[in-house]
Amino acid sequence: MKKSILISAAILALAGCQSGDPQLGKSSVDKVLKAMTLEEKVHFVIGMGMAGSDGNSAVVGATEDIVPGAAGTTYPIPRLGIPSIVLADGPAGLRINPTRENDPNTYYCTHFPIGTLLSSTWNQELVESVGEAMGQEVHEYGADVYLAPALNIHRHPLNGRNFEYYSEDPVVAGKTAAAYVRGVQKNDVGTSVKHFAYNNQETNRTGNNAIISPRAQREIYLKGFEITVKEADPWTIMSSYNKINGTYTSQSKDLLTTVLRDEWGFKGLVMTDWYGGDNGAEQIAAGNDMLQPGTALQYQQIMDALKDGSLTEAQLDVCVKRCLELVKRSPKVKGYAYSNKPDLKAHATVTRQSALEGMVLLENNGVLPLKDVKNVAVFGCTSFDFIAGGTGSGNVNRAYTVSLLDGLKNAGFKVDESNKETYLKHIEKEKAAFQASLDPNDALAPFYPVPRPSELVPSPKEMAALVKNNDIAIITFGRNSGEFFDRSAADFELSKSERTLLTAVTAAFHTAGKKVVVVLNVGGVIETHSWSWMPDAVLLAWQAGQEGGNSVTDILTGVESPSGKLPMTFPMNLMDAASSLNFPIDATKDVYFTNRREDVGQKDVDQTDYAEGIYVGYRWFDKYNISVSYPFGYGLSYTSFEYSEPTVKNDGKTVTATVTVKNVGEVAGKEAVQLYVSAPESKLDKPAKELKAYGKTKKLAPGESQTLTLTFPTSELASFDEEASAWKVDAGTYQFLFGASSRDIRCTAEADAAASEVPAHRVLLKQ
Q: What is the predicted pLDDT for the residue at 452?
């Protein structure tokens, strides 16, 4: 079949040369569009299919002919000079195959830190630099569009894909994603911002119906995408699998045309997520320009709709033109001769350094940075088998992962390896048992997150020797994250074996007057309240990419002072989160990634009611003064900062806030400053405070000061009034709160705002 397509393409190409057909890249897009047959147009808006797929399965795909391991390709029309362009997965690094048939070379990519770590930096300039390194690999490996970043809201701690996403707050999510897009696209390749929108759980993600009020959509779930579109101009947007208020997002004209294009001014292309939606003609009519990876059924649906008049050729032409414009700006049309040799050595340095700013110091009882420590005992399976990132399309085929054990050794510590072989054999045994339990016919099996191994607790004799021979203990607890699977409630807690290990190690080392540090190598929130008081320090390292062990060691030793801050709240208990009442906490395995299955009959599987409205994350906890383990924006440092001299001015168009930050500690460090706003009383119910802007200082030496200027449009003071279907700024005096976290406000200022109202289309309504 593939050979016949290629032969036909060659014949068409020859015919084109003979007849003088317009050529994309030389002729105008309009001329090329006019020269296309109807059949070519329909083929062109549908991808080339997926190797090893029947068109209905949920396999993460490959395009073997151009860039093996890439997710998809577009349809070529050689007679018009239209090549296939390559779409490749992210967002923690390019996902392609490392080996190729009859090719002795390897094609590894850099595994950069996960999205949650990047957002924890609160440093847009740094994120942009990471994006630029990623984009260089995309460009040099021959891909044209990078299927990243992902910026859906952290609605609930157990969402399996939170590791790819950024925050519970849309400003952090949007600003981080915008920086990422700008960085990648500096390389003359495109991004595909995903998943648009409301993809906040993996359970039954292709069939789940998200029931969300217009206000919550506008203020929480769409705002980050709006920021990214307006500040970074991504080449493409990827629609999500789920429904919104009864309609698949890829088939919602309200979402893809009215909001995205008419209101926000997006000029690029919209593509489906792989096999998203259930009607190709409805997707084209809605403004979903490209259907990936492409099926014969979609072709037939579009042709049938054209014949019966439910879809017009003019509607199809709009999508075809956007696809042509995307292909025209690609490296393929420009004839870029990619090298297959990106600068992996330089990018390893980028990933190691960038991870430092996103690690969050949660606790420190004077033990960090490490001093007068030579001999180190490490515990926990993840100390030996560090987790670089999540699974599924977010995985990266990398050359190596630096473990914590090796990171410590690289820094010159003498690490006690008396338990190493025991740990490695135990880890391998449990991994093998898991693999043996999988159904070999299950297409998703390669992408299942491997359950964390049970922890090994040393015997009293072994523990005594480890205490005697070492100056300090470091315990690493890990959590896998992955596409297709939401985490379980049990995964949120420390397991029985983890608690036993923590208790045994802290008791033994503390009795000997020695310290214990816990490192959390996780992709999302876990419970900390019940145990964080036990060790002497807790470092949230996230999943830091392939250089993870080196990056963690750099923080532990004080190469850099930690400056990461939480982009989400750590609740004391899982059920404290408002969304826990409407999230599939106990969903069964057979409803993960169902193919439009709507007969499951489980709460929050067929349909999820976002009953908490706008009260997501800190907005919920702060409004009702609920105690938390760690608040949004929290993070310790090895130094201290003082805030002073705040000012706020509002000229009616822009709010300009300044604050002076001084390092009053003893070591150099950076500080992330958060600007919250508290609105005057209104007929609309409003959060106690909302983040509107943030910034990060340079590295300040002890005694050094810096004045930060934070700006945002005055219109961002507005709330969405559903009754009027308008964004409304209430007249009155607004409080501006400069904080080190949502619950650590250092200084305040006031400014007045006049009333204003900006109408919006009345769309995206509940059923």
A: 83
pLDDT in tens, 597-619: 444 456 778 899 999 999 999 99
Q: Which two tokens stand for residue 483?
A: 């596409």
pLDDT in tens, 717-749: 999 999 999 999 999 999 999 999 999 999 999
In sequence order, the 6+-apart residues with CB closer than 8 A to the CB of 669 are: 561, 563, 637, 638, 639, 641, 663, 699, 700
First to last CA, the chain: 44
**Tens digit of each residue's pLDDT (9 = 90 or more) over 406-430:** 999 999 999 999 999 999 999 999 9
What lies within 8 Å, CB to CB, of 335 at 6+ separation is none
Catalytic pick from 144, 169, 273, 289? 273
Q: What is the average per-residue pLDDT within 180-187?
A: 98
Assess whether 273 carries a catalytic annotation. Answer: yes
Q: Is the dihedral of CA 227, 228, 231, 233 positive or negative?
A: negative
Q: Do residues 198 and 212 lie in contact, with contact meaning Cβ atoms separated by under 8 Å?
A: yes
Q: Which residues pair with 741 in a beta bridge?
A: 744
Does 149 sit behind a cis peptide bond, omega within 30 degrees of 0 on the bond before it?
A: yes
Q: Report the C-alpha gap between 455 and 584 in whole angstroms.
A: 27
Question: For the residues of 334-357, what is the DSSP string, one character each?
Answer: TT----S---HHHHHHHHHHHHHT
> Encoding tokens for residue 84?
């296939």
For 437, the enclosing helix (H) or strand (E) is helix 420-437
Provide the edge-to-edge strand list for the sheet that holds 732-741: 690-696, 672-678, 732-741, 744-753
Query: Mean of the per-residue pLDDT values for the chain?
Result: 93
Question: Tens of pLDDT along 301-336?
Answer: 999 999 999 999 999 999 999 999 999 999 999 999
- State the SS3 of 258-303: HHHHHHCCCCCEEEECCCCCCCHHHHHHHCCCEECCCCHHHHHHHH
The full length of the chain comes to 767
Strand partners for 700 = 669
Yes or no: say if 361 and 554 are a contact pair by the CB < 8 Å rule. no
Per DSSP, what are the bridge partners of residue 648?
657
The tens digit of pLDDT for each residue in 652-703 reads 999 999 999 999 999 999 999 999 999 999 999 999 999 999 999 999 999 9
Label residue 1 exposed, middle or buried (CB < 10 Å: 0-12, 13-18, 19+). exposed
Residue 479 CA to residue 452 CA, distance in Å, equals 6
3-state secondary structure of 22: coil
444 or 523, higher pLDDT? 523
Side-chain-side CA neighbours of 388 within 13 Å: the count stands at 25
CA 363 – CA 746 distance, rounded (Å) = 20
Cα-based torsion angle of the residue sequence 89, 95, 101, 104 in order, rounded to the nearest 10 degrees = 150
Assign 119 a pLDDT band (cuts: 50, 70, 90).
Answer: very high
DSSP string across 51-107? TT--SSS-----BTTTBTT-SEEPPPBGGGTB---EEEE-SSS-B--S-BTTB----
Type of residue numbered 61: G
- 3-state helix/strand/coil string of 207-268: CCEEECCHHHHHHHHCHHHHHHHHHHCCCEEEECCCEECCEEHHHCHHHHHHHHHHHCCCCC
Per DSSP, helices labelled H in 604-756 are: 618-623
* Distance of alpha carbon 747 from alpha carbon 737, whole angstroms: 6
Longest distance between any two alpha carbons in the chain, whole Å: 88
Contacts of 518 (CB under 8 A, 6+ apart): 474, 475, 476, 477, 502, 532, 535, 537, 538, 539
Contacts of 107 (CB under 8 A, 6+ apart): 96, 97, 98, 99, 100, 141, 340, 397
pLDDT for 543-574, tens place per residue?
999 999 999 999 999 999 999 999 999 999 99
